[in-house]
Amino acid sequence: MPSGRGVSVLRNLAAFPHISPKLGTHYSGNGDFVAFATQCRQYKDGVLVQRIIDASYGPAISGTIRIPDALDTGEGQTRGFYVQDAGYPNFINWMLQVLSIPGNLGRWFQVGGQLIKNWLEGDEETDIGGYLAQLLGDADASTCSLPMGGMGRDYPTGRMSLHNGKLAVGVDDHLARSYYERVRQQMQAISTALGGKLKDDPLWVLNRLVTVHPLGGCPMGRTIAEGVVNSYGEVFNYPGLYIADGSVMPGPVGANPSLTIAALSDRTADSIIAGYQQHTYQITSFCPTSS
After folding, report:
1. Is 76 within 8 Å of 185 (Cβ atoms)?
2. Which fold does the domain 1-27+214-291 belong to in CATH?
3. Under a CB-based contact definition with an 8 Å cutoff, are residues 158 and 7 in contact?
4. pLDDT tens across 104-125, in order?
């Protein structure tokens, strides 16, 4: 987990009395946001029919829409982002269909009544596949839905802390809400273009977000007043202690941060190796020559 080092230091804060006050700050989810375009439709020969999407087939991401921000020629946007299609394993199709069943209780009663009738009449033949197909219906919930994932340059205002030994993250709701609302508006436009309806992640309704790209917590800075580590990942006031993961990033990069994290880690590794070689040379240069 990219921000895992920040959590580890927080849990062992007593061992780091001279750590930067910036510990736990600059947390960001890299702007991750999830929503769904559901019940997508299209006109074919003048008739409104299902738009077959089948998100469980093919790669997880096959297309990207890039919304620029003010730093790269975006007009009126303060923070840019990406919206991508999201694939999922085939078993999710079954889950989506089961979750959609409560909206079709009549089908439940119809299938259940037929099974009870067959049991009372002693019918030993049971067409399980047929009944299941009847229960699931036309698989509209899975075949005509498009999961969408957003990520971008959200505001790194999150602050990590421990409450009763458990991690808690607080963010500036005003800034965060303004960014995520723009992402959601773009997803709404995509849903409309596909002839569908936008369905939010249930956690969004509960004012919660899921991220697979957590960043920050031990941010990089020029001085200890700005960050926990220097530009090479070495912790201020603790020479020889390095952090080489996403927790050192002081803000989001917008795109998937894995290559940026890898590049920073590689730079940190080079610095450690260079320091070790220099240290070894200084030691050997003072060793007396044996006679």
Report:
1. no
2. FAD/NAD(P)-binding domain (3.50.50)
3. no
4. 545 545 655 665 666 666 655 5
Cβ(265)–Cβ(242) below 8 Å: no
User: What DSSP letter does each residue of 137-190 carry, written as one string?
Assistant: TT-HHHHT-EEEEEEE-----BEEEEETTEEEEE--HHHHHHHHHHHHHHHHHH
Domain boundary assignment for the chain: 1-27+214-291, 30-213
Handedness of CA 244, 224, 272, 253 (dihedral sign): positive
User: pLDDT at position 62, please?
Assistant: 86
- With 70 as the cut, is the pLDDT of residue 93 above it? no
Could you give phi then psi for residue 119, rounded to 5 degrees? -65, -40
| 32-84 per-position pLDDT tens digit | 999 989 889 999 999 999 898 887 777 888 889 999 887 776 565 678 999 99
CA neighbor of 250 nearest in space, from 20, 14, 8: 20
**What are the residues whose beta carbons fall under 8 Å from the beta carbon of 159, sequence distance 6 or more?**
24, 25, 27, 169, 170, 171
Token match 């990520």: residue? 151
For the whole model, what pTM was predicted?
Answer: 0.74
Q: Is there a contact between 192 and 166 (Cβ–Cβ < 8 Å)?
A: no
d(CA 228, CA 21): 8
